[in-house]
């Protein structure tokens, strides 16, 4: 490689690294002016890039030029202050620097011996975060449990489902797989369905229990109890329950304490998914939404959603680490070492699906150190206050209604249909969503609750201020007027 970049050269890294940091800083400086939702058509990039890779190296500057001219127009800008769709995926200076450092040392930390600091820092930083959330001590590394960073909440629910499956099969026999039953509400994230498919749980054994407006879309303990009793009478084996704190559609909160007691009574693994709302629970005024987590066998939240930690960083805690290890452990000869063989250390390869793993704890450690608990609490509270502000704007326009109670920083609302015609109303809100997103000046998403097409306005981007919320509301009002006429 006589021309271009060397595989690793400190001075070339310094030169190009400075240029890249400047490029990213300029991106954030101007992100507000860029259409938040990509406006390109499918297949656009094939028309702009060559059919094959270059034979000879190109200059770094030419690559950056192409990123600006060809790649960024095809990016939906999740860090834009005008991003209000789905749930946030936070970036921050601390998170970025941690990610950069992780990429720089570039370890593959599957076992303690591959980089002791990676394993031990992960244990420490998840204990820190667990204490911020006031999780029971059973979830901390000082006991039989502990925390592990997964890539996503989808991976987290899969590994605990596998652990629960193997634990119950060890008791009732492996031939009983077809009798195992999983329980969740119809508001639970679809990742549980995928986990069941991967784990070999029969589709008909995935009990999706209906939740409606009478419980603010939370899972009813009575309905769960009745369903379990019926299944037991029919010879099925209940083994896994997933409750959610902050569902994707509406931030519904399942009642953890009664659900946990039902699970314990029936010998069911109880998992709590707080992927989005878990971050808010570092604030004392929101911690009560986790009351009952002491009954859980596992708990998950995504630091990369709303805690200023760059994707990906999904924190999972379990009370019994051995349940994970017994389900997921392998011990080939080429990975054996003294520390592992003597059971002196944690090997996180046995807590996850893949073997290899990144040094993710670095960025979480840097976020917690460089911002501190009080600043993180203020960050969360600011977004929740902005959501309250938006909620008030919606309530002040008689053409709209807030559909479900706002708890955190998500507002579910809709444009009211004329003459209470729900079919017309669903099309109207679908058209409003498309109209708003087509402007490029705001990006929102939708859900369906009780058969109604609902608009979701989720505040959580690091750069969002009150003026961005007000501007988005003005766009919503203007596009609504264009659809139905000025009030």
From TrEMBL:
User: What cofactor(s) does the depicted protein rely on?
Assistant: pyridoxal 5'-phosphate
**What's the domain of life for this entry?**
Eukaryota
The family database entries (PROSITE patterns) matched by this protein are listed as: DDC_GAD_HDC_YDC
**SUPFAM superfamilies linked to this entry:** PLP-dependent transferases
Give the UniProt entry's GO cellular component terms: cytoplasm
Q: Which UniProt keywords apply?
A: Decarboxylase, Lyase, Pyridoxal phosphate
Question: Could you mention a single GO BP entry for this protein?
Answer: amino acid metabolic process
Where does the record place the modification N6-(pyridoxal phosphate)lysine? 305
Q: Mention one GO molecular function.
A: pyridoxal phosphate binding
Quote the PANTHER family the UniProt record gives.
Answer: GROUP II PYRIDOXAL-5-PHOSPHATE DECARBOXYLASE (PTHR11999), MIP05841P (PTHR11999:SF70)
Describe the family membership recorded for this protein in Swiss-Prot or TrEMBL: Belongs to the group II decarboxylase family.
UniProt-recorded name of the protein: Tyrosine decarboxylase
**Organism in which the protein naturally occurs:** Erythroxylum novogranatense
Q: Name the lineage.
A: Eukaryota, Viridiplantae, Streptophyta, Embryophyta, Tracheophyta
């Amino acid at each position: 490689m006589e021309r271009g970049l060397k595989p690793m050269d400190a001075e070339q890294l310094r030169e190009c690294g400075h240029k890249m940091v400047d490029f990213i800083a300029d991106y954030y400086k101007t992100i507000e002016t860029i259409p938040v939702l990509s406006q390109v058509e499918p297949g656009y990039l094939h028309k702009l890039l060559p059919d094959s890779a270059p034979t000879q190296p190109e200059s770094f500057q030419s690559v950056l030029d192409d990123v600006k001219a060809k790649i960024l127009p095809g990016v939906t800008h999740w860090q834009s202050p005008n991003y209000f769709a789905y749930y946030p995926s936070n970036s921050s200076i601390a998170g970025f620097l941690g990610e950069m450092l992780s990429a720089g040392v570039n370890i593959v930390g599957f076992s303690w011996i591959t980089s002791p600091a990676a394993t031990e820092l992960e244990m420490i930083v998840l204990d820190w975060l667990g204490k911020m959330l006031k999780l029971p001590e059973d979830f901390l590394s000082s006991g039989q449990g502990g925390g592990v960073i997964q890539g996503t909440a989808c991976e987290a629910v899969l590994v605990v489902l596998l652990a629960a499956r193997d634990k119950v099969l060890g008791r009732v026999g492996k031939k009983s797989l077809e009798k195992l039953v999983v329980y969740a509400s119809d508001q639970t994230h679809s990742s549980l369905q995928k986990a069941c498919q991967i784990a070999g749980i029969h589709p008909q054994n995935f009990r999706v229990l209906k939740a409606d407006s009478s419980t603010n879309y939370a899972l009813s303990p009575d309905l769960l109890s009745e369903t379990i009793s019926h299944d037991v009478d029919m010879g099925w084996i209940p083994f896994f329950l997933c409750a959610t704190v902050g569902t994707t559609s509406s931030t519904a909160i399942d009642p953890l304490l009664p659900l946990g007691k039902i699970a314990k009574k029936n010998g069911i693994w109880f998992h709590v998914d707080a992927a989005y709302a878990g971050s808010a629970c570092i604030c004392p005024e929101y911690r009560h939404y986790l009351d009952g987590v002491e009954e859980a066998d596992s708990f998950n939240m995504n630091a990369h959603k709303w805690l200023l930690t760059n994707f990906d960083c999904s924190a999972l805690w379990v009370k019994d680490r051995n349940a994970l290890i017994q389900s997921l452990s392998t011990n080939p000869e080429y990975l054996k070492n003294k520390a592992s063989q003597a059971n002196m250390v944690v090997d996180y390869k046995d807590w996850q699906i893949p073997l290899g793993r990144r040094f993710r704890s670095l960025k979480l450690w840097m976020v917690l150190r460089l911002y501190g608990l009080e600043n993180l609490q203020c960050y969360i509270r600011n977004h929740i206050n902005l959501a309250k502000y938006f909620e008030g704007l919606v309530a002040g326009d008689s053409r709209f209604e807030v559909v479900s109670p706002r708890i955190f920083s998500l507002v579910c609302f809709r444009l009211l249909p004329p003459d209470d015609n729900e079919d017309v109303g669903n099309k109207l809100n679908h058209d409003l969503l498309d109209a708003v997103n087509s402007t490029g000046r705001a990006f929102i998403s939708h859900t369906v609750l009780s058969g109604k097409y609902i608009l979701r306005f989720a505040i959580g981007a690091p750069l969002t201020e009150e003026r961005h919320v007000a501007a988005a509301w003005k766009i919503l009002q203007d596009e609504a007027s264009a659809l139905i006429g000025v009030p």
